[in-house]
Amino acid sequence: MVKKIKLPFVNPKLMGEMIRQQIRSALYYEQESTKVEIAQITGLTFPTVSKAMEEMKADGEVLLSGLRESSGGRRPQMYMLNAAHMSGLAVYLEKDCTIYTLLNYVGEVLLQERLPGVLDEGPEALDRQMKVYLERYPLIRALTFGVPASVTNGQVFHIPSYEKFNGYDLKAAYESRYRLQVQIENDMNATVLGYHDQLDNNKSLSLVYLYFGMNGPGAGIMVNGKLVRGNTFFAGEVFYLPLGQQNFGEVIQELTNRSNKKRDDAKLIDAMSRLVAIFTATLNPDIFIFCSINLSEKDLEEVKSRSALYVPEAHLPALIIRNWQQDYIHGLKQMTIRTMLGTGIE
């Protein structure tokens, strides 16, 4: 008797959405393509692609953009995502300001506005700002918040100095009130994602991105191209790394608050060099990124030299300086775009 193998049930609606996600992703990166080209990119069959794209066209998600040049015979039709189909909002939350970036369906920035910070006031102040955008732009379907805090399943925790947001479930608050897909991400995780997205070639690099922050230092970490959040979503909280009789955060705060700049610089360089050595010995990253507002090119050279006193120079990562805010906002934008496309963040 032949034993029957029971195959897992696959919801046809879910399968259809997975197919659409692949088509959206292909059209986003290629900007415009024919059905044959999309089938080649995705590995889906031509009939599957053709059927899904006709449905997407009927829904207004995909537009006919023209005809491809042909060496002979009928010219194939080209398709593109409809930029006006939906929009997404990326929200940068920091002590001094809140930056709102509105994106269309193909990732183009429609507007970017800087408003007063709301972290000190609490969730109600954020709600007042958000309500204006959500009423003014009814096509918003994806919402991403970047916060200077640890985050677990959309709930904010460990957010020093902003107790009104501590324990606040930001994701649930906005998903329950509005028809939105909401993501909440730690600021440094979003920043390292933003830098990683801009790498041209090798996307499997291991990265550490350090920022002193307004309430203590933090780091975004990627290993082999994958974001590291940790067992309790606490990865990157370098404030607590022991450094002598203090921890790294206490040392940084103490040194940056002193008036004797020359003495501070020498100890600050040593503290950062020790941190580079710690990550070199534990993760052995390809690149260690500092922020331009924290470090000068001259400082960077001193960190390179000093780090080599603690670990063999041959194993040190490349040390570079970046514009933190630009990488952070780029990361939030990419997360918002991927939410709209349904591809998510790994």
From TrEMBL:
Role this protein plays: Transcriptional repressor of xylose-utilizing enzymes.
Highest taxon of source: Bacteria
Source organism of this protein record: Paenibacillus sp. BIHB 4019
Name the record gives this protein: ROK family protein
Gene3D superfamilies: 3.30.420.40, Winged helix-like DNA-binding domain superfamily/Winged helix DNA-binding domain
An individual GO BP term: D-xylose metabolic process
SUPFAM superfamilies: Actin-like ATPase domain, Winged helix' DNA-binding domain
Residue spans crossing the bilayer: none
InterPro entries: ATPase_NBD, ROK, WH-like_DNA-bd_sf, WH_DNA-bd_sf
Keywords: Carbohydrate metabolism, Xylose metabolism
PANTHER family: BIFUNCTIONAL UDP-N-ACETYLGLUCOSAMINE 2-EPIMERASE_N-ACETYLMANNOSAMINE KINASE (PTHR18964:SF149), ROK (REPRESSOR, ORF, KINASE) FAMILY (PTHR18964)
Similarity field: Belongs to the ROK (NagC/XylR) family.
